[in-house]
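User: Design a sequence. Structure:
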């Protein structure tokens, strides 16, 4: 089986995925693969053409915070970033997922851009981790060390909760009423039930 885990920025998706790893699932981290992908020469060239040379450091490597500032200021800019990076990220994630499944294990795609990249089509079930706006805003500000206006811009650039509902994802609320361990347990039980169907 291939399981998709996605969600809004600041929803706490990565913490939930860490707990799922403790349940024995193989976590395929899109952010980790993306960090490797954006540092190859072809991708760096395409990104600097799209977003300007200010996203590069003095030694020609990627300045991730400068890219984030440019790429997450609007949905259009985020879509442009995705069009450059997604194909290579998707290819690598699916390769790892296929290897995992061929070994009889369950692969979990930890992918904030699961729907935008088209990875949702490869999943047997998708869980969308969501949280209320106030909680997300505080988490983003703390995580990224940014002010409230920048956090709001990042939140607006992402998908709405309604989008996940409309695309048949199983919504999981991570506003703080349940611990990440409890959420991972709930997801794990759902996956185990699916295996018996």
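Assistant: Done.
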């Amino acid at each position: 089986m291939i399981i998709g885990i996605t969600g809004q920025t600041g929803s706490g998706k990565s913490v939930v995925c860490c707990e799922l790893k403790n349940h024995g699932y193989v976590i395929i981290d899109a952010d980790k693969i993306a960090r490797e992908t954006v540092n190859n020469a072809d991708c760096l060239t395409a990104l600097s053409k799209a977003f300007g040379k200010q996203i590069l450091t003095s030694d020609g490597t990627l300045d991730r915070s400068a890219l984030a500032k440019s790429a997450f200021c609007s949905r259009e800019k985020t879509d442009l970033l995705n069009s450059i990076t997604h194909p290579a990220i998707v290819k690598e994630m699916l390769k790892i997922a296929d290897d995992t499944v061929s070994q009889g294990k369950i692969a979990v795609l930890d992918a904030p851009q699961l729907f935008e990249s088209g990875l949702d089509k490869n999943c047997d079930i998708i869980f969308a981790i969501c949280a209320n706006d106030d909680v997300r805003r505080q988490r983003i500000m703390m995580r990224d060390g940014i002010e409230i206006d920048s956090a709001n811009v990042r939140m607006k650039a992402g998908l709405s909760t309604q989008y996940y509902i409309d695309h048949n994802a199983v919504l999981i609320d991570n506003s703080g009423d349940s611990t990440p361990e409890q959420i991972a347990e709930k997801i794990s039980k759902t996956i185990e039930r699916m295996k018996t169907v």
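The first strand starts at residue 2 and ends at 7. The chain has a mean pLDDT of 92.
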